[in-house]
Amino acid sequence: MLHFVTGNAGKVREAQSLLDADVSQFDFDYTEIQSPELEAIAARGAREAYREVGEPVFVDDSGLFVDALDGFPGPYSAYVEGTVGIERVWRLVEPEDDHGAAFRAVVAYCDGTDEVRTFEGRVTGEIVAPRGDGGFGYDPIFEHDGRTFAEMDPEAKNAVSHRGRALETFAEWYDTR
Ligand code: ITT
Ligand code: NA
């Protein structure tokens, strides 16, 4: 049994659809340090979550990096989603010539026996007016290959997404460790 320590049910659905191992959500609010680096945030979080749960855990720290906004909201994506909201992020990007953006995710695993392991995934796309009602978070305004992530089912999104790639790399390591 692997505990995915997160308050985000959308992340859990994607991990369950991709990983062979049994994944259960453990909703514990670990400290998210103020850092420009997703990897540092995730690694610290995984250590703290392991101390809380006492069994193998992983966490996911992720964010949307908009090119025309110099990578904003990046590590502050959750805060910006909850305050400004995705519709206004779209409005910020709309007048820009460059709508390019990337989602990044870092999955960090800790089982107490070894150093924390981290696995990263990245996907590029375009910021568009909101479309679709699947997924979560910024999915309606992130278009990849003609569809927003909110227009894809979890399998299609996992096949190309930042989290799908990070989880894929994690699973390869986990299965052969
Ligand atoms: P936990 O920290 O409890 O896991 P969270 O949603 O706060 O949940 P983060 O701190 O990693 O997660 O913040 C990630 C932000 O980026 C948050 O606003 C998400 O909605 C957004 N995000 C990450 N991956 C996404 C995805 O696949 N699709 C849409 N938005 C995503
Ligand atoms: Na969070």
UniProtKB/TrEMBL annotation:
This protein's record includes keyword Lipid biosynthesis: no
Q: Does the keyword Hydrolase apply?
A: yes
Which keywords does this Swiss-Prot/TrEMBL entry list?
Answer: Hydrolase
Any single Pfam family the record assigns to this protein: Ham1p_like
**CDD domains tied to this protein:** HAM1
Task: State the source organism's domain of life.
Answer: Archaea
What PANTHER family would the database entry show?
Answer: INOSINE TRIPHOSPHATE PYROPHOSPHATASE, INOSINE TRIPHOSPHATE PYROPHOSPHATASE/HAM1 PROTEIN
Protein's name in the database:
Inosine/xanthosine triphosphate pyrophosphatase,all-alpha NTP-PPase family
The organism of origin for this protein: Halapricum desulfuricans
High-level lineage: Archaea, Methanobacteriati, Methanobacteriota, Stenosarchaea group, Halobacteria
